[in-house]
Design a protein that fits this description.
The complex is a heterodimer of chains A (about 230) and B (about 575). Chain A is mainly alpha-helical and about 230 residues long. Chain A contains eight helices and two strands. In chain A, helix 5 runs antiparallel to helix 6 (about 115-145) and helix 7 packs antiparallel against helix 8. Chain B is about 60% helix and about 0% strand. The chains are: A mainly alpha (about 230), B mainly alpha (about 575).
Chain lengths: ~230, ~575
């Protein structure tokens, strides 16, 4: 019986066999800190939550008995007499994707040991995230003032409001939680709490942040562009 | 580089000093496991009493005034939900998962003990919210454990006002608790194994718990999302699941929702949930059978791959619960096919258990009796599953007692048999004392024969067309009078089985007070949890140094070896395969 028998030469083999030997080896499957592995697994689970939210939304949209409201008109702004569809959403998406950039730079500086730049970049990420939430609050209040409710709206299928508030709300909660998380990490980096343990935590927070951004891209595509 | 912060640095463990940090706000996986276990068994007893009340009504209709139709539906609902989620999932993963994972893979604790502690307290909160629904106006929900809308939140269903809200909130809290625990289990198994513990040397218990936890992390999101959507439908009046409808003569404000969407989401969770319960049971029963038959598990690699294959397939079969909901025939064909394919890895497992027993040195101890009992009940329930997996056979049998008999055999009785096997098997490790053998055997025979007396006749009732969830049959012509006699017999058997669990409780209490000390490794098991320096294991599990693993977990009766078992931490020169 050779179950579990792995000799050291197996790791060095190229291709699938080496990879399998590496994964099935003792102690650890992935060469990363525990927190990072756990964050990846959590994000996989969270991916399922958002996928199911979006699938549910697509199903109610297709099954709705009334017409779906004209999305690009609902989410349009008129600034200085110029009518611009999806303007606010475009700005929000730009802000959030930019914040992913600053986060990636923060991770880089953290591993280099440049604490001052790391703190500034994490703080910038958090500020961008907070402004995203602020713009979302503006959008919510605009829609509410126009009569959109989770149970009704002036233009058609009531599932529009229900899905909109539920999905953007759930995503907004993720962003808000991320801002708080980043603020805590930034404070701890500034105090030098991670000097001994290493700066993997910045990367872990970054994973979460990039995930929240990526989810937004899908919400943007499926909700605003469809 | 190894990331082993607490794995081999005992100083990093938060050593508990006071009674409160040791036994209440404990971060020790063993204490958390026992807390999970006691809570789960407590709610399980509540659900057992509920099933007794249901049986009283079914066996002797018009006899008990305090069971009205509403109360009956509430008993059905709460019995189902508690048994599936709050007892089986919590006890198998929160209880045995917590206890066995670090011990079996040679870790000092879970990777994030604090999160693990939070998991238990969040679970306790979900149980309290659930039980609170018995005390709110209108009582708990009576929508059936599947909670199908629109009826679940409409007037006319018991508990439509408060019960359903508390149920949905409790489920959401439970999912949070499960996620915190589940992330710990998966990360611990992947990242914190001891030296020499490769994936293919892990005992099958760990493989079962690992795969089940992954399933849980991917399936519970569907339940969470559907709970949130139904809460919104109920509380603020959205129409995700609610079409335009007239209720009690009034037309409701809902329009255009999709009730079938809920069924899809629910069963996308609900079917993997069956395997969340079954896979840890498969794993544990494999280890119990190998240990008590003094023989290596037959086809270890196939057993591992069968677990993984069942886990993967379980995400592609959910709509076989919805054949009567209305579906395109092509989808019915697809889901029938995937459902029947699952029978292949499952049959591999059953054959391998039987082949492990074949020509083994079988010790008919209490854990072994329950394990063999499991092979019977599981094969039985699995075969009726093949009936129900076919669309054309399912249609007439849907919502009859045949279905009740099928799922109680396959995911009620079978995991419970394994849980008892596991409790009798690991009790000497957990408490240091051995449960009384004679009482255990009495408990086994009452439970095993009793469940057959309960569920075999139910198959027949199903063929007669007796519908499930009905409060009383009334004057239905197609149901012969003999069905009522049969129902009375089933009730008597069910009450005997229920009462016989008192033997078990008495055995536990008696053993804790004055049971015989079990000593070190009383069953002669090979896996690591029995090789700790102290019994029961102390905080940190392993003393100053972590064990090293040199072989798989099934070196029983190796020719030429000193004893009939070689523990996993014995070096290669002790004989056996040494792999």
């Amino acid at each position: 019986m050779d179950a579990g028998k792995i000799s050291s030469s197996d790791y060095e083999q190229p291709g699938v066999k080496g990879m399998v030997a590496d994964w099935a080896a003792d102690r650890q499957t992935f060469d990363m800190p525990w927190g990072k592995a756990m964050m990846w697994i959590f994000l996989l689970s969270d991916t399922f939550i958002f996928s199911i939210f979006l699938t549910g939304y697509m199903k109610v949209r297709m099954a709705a008995t009334e017409a779906w409201p004209p999305v690009s008109e609902v989410f349009a702004l008129t600034i200085g007499g110029v009518y611009m569809p999806l303007l606010l959403i475009a700005i929000m998406t730009f802000v959030l994707i930019t914040s992913s950039g600053t986060m990636a730079m923060a991770v880089n500086y953290a591993y280099r040991g440049d604490r001052r730049r790391t703190v500034m970049l994490i703080a910038a990420t958090a500020v961008l995230g907070a402004s995203f939430v602020g713009m979302q609050a503006f959008e919510w209040s605009k829609l509410i003032s126009e009569g959109v409710r989770p149970w009704a709206n002036p233009w058609g299928a009531e599932q529009f409001g229900a899905a909109f508030f539920m999905i953007t709300g759930f995503h907004g909660l993720h962003v808000s939680a991320g801002v708080i998380y980043l603020a805590i990490v930034a404070r701890k980096v500034a105090r030098g709490d991670y000097e001994k343990k290493g700066y993997a935590i910045v990367e872990i927070a970054g994973l979460y942040w990039h995930f929240v951004d990526l989810v937004w891209v899908f919400i943007f595509a499926f909700f605003y562009l469809w | 580089m190894q990331h082993t912060a607490i794995a081999d640095q005992p100083a990093e463990l938060h050593d508990p000093h006071s009674f409160v940090t040791r036994y209440i706000w404990s971060q020790d996986h063993k204490v958390i496991a026992i807390q999970y276990g006691i809570t789960a068994i407590f709610v399980g007893l509540v659900a057992l009493v509920l099933s007794g009340l249901m049986r009283l009504q079914l066996g002797f209709p018009d006899t008990f005034d305090f069971i009205d139709p509403s109360a009956y539906l509430q008993f059905v609902t709460m019995h189902g939900m508690i048994m599936v989620i709050y007892l089986l999932t919590a006890l198998l993963l929160g209880g045995f998962g917590n206890y066995l994972i670090p011990l079996m893979i040679g870790a000092r604790d879970m990777v994030f003990p604090y999160l693990n502690m939070l998991s238990f307290w969040t679970y306790l909160l979900s149980v309290i919210v659930l039980l609170a629904s018995f005390f709110v106006p209108g009582g708990p929900t009576g929508a059936g454990w599947t909670l199908y809308p629109p009826q679940a939140i409409l007037q006319g269903t018991p508990g439509y006002d408060w019960g359903i809200i508390l149920m949905l909130i409790s489920l959401a809290i439970f999912i949070v608790a499960f996620t915190m625990g589940g992330l710990n289990y998966v990360t611990t198994i992947l990242q914190a194994r001891t030296r020499g513990m490769t994936l293919m040397r892990m005992p099958l218990t760990i493989w079962g718990i690992f795969t089940a936890t992954v399933l849980g992390l991917l399936a519970f999101p569907a339940l969470l999302v559907s709970a949130i959507m139904m809460l919104l439908d109920k509380v603020i009046g959205t129409s995700f699941f609610m079409p335009a409808l007239v209720s009690l003569g009034e037309s409701m404000d809902y329009t255009g929702g999709s009730p079938i969407l809920f069924q899809h989401l629910f069963w996308f969770f609900g079917h993997p949930e069956v395997y969340i319960v079954a896979l840890p049971a498969f794993g544990m029963v494999s280890d119990v059978i190998a240990t008590h038959a003094r023989k290596n598990i037959f086809g270890y690699r196939m057993m591992v791959w069968a677990i993984v294959a069942i886990g993967g397939l379980s995400f592609f079969v959910w709509a076989h619960h919805m054949y009567v909901s209305g579906m395109h025939p092509a989808f019915g064909f697809f889901f029938a096919t995937t459902t029947l394919i699952i029978a292949v890895p499952t049959a591999i497992k059953v054959y391998n258990w039987v082949l492990t027993l074949w020509r083994g040195n079988i010790h008919l101890t209490v854990p072994m009796l329950f394990a063999i009992g499991f092979i019977f009940t599981f094969t039985h329930g699995g075969l009726t599953g093949l009936f129900l997996g076919n669309v054309t056979i399912d249609l007439p049998l849907s919502d009859t007692y045949f279905v009740v008999a099928h799922f109680h055999m396959v995911m009620g009785v079978s995991p419970i048999m394994v849980l008892f096997a596991a409790i009798y098997h690991w009790f000497p490790l957990i408490s240091g004392r051995k449960l009384h053998e004679g009482l255990g055997k009495a408990h086994f025979w009452f439970t095993f024969l009793g469940t057959y007396a309960v569920y075999l006749p139910m198959h027949y009732l199903g063929f007669l067309g007796v519908p499930r969830r009905y409060f009383a049959m009334g004057g239905s012509d197609f149901i012969p009078a003999s069905a009522e006699t049969l129902n009375a017999n089933i009730t008597i058997a069910a009450l005997i089985v229920g009462l016989s669990q008192l033997i078990f409780l008495y055995n536990v209490v008696r053993t804790l007070r004055r049971g015989e000390p079990a000593g070190h490794n009383p069953w002669g098991a090979t896996s690591l949890e029995w090789q700790t320096p102290d019994v029961p294991p102390k905080h940190g599990n392993w003393g100053p140094e972590l064990p090293s693993v040199h072989r798989w977990a099934y070196d029983f009766s190796v020719p030429g070896a000193e004893k009939d078992f070689i523990p996993q931490n014995q070096p290669e020169k002790a004989g056996g395969t040494g792999t």
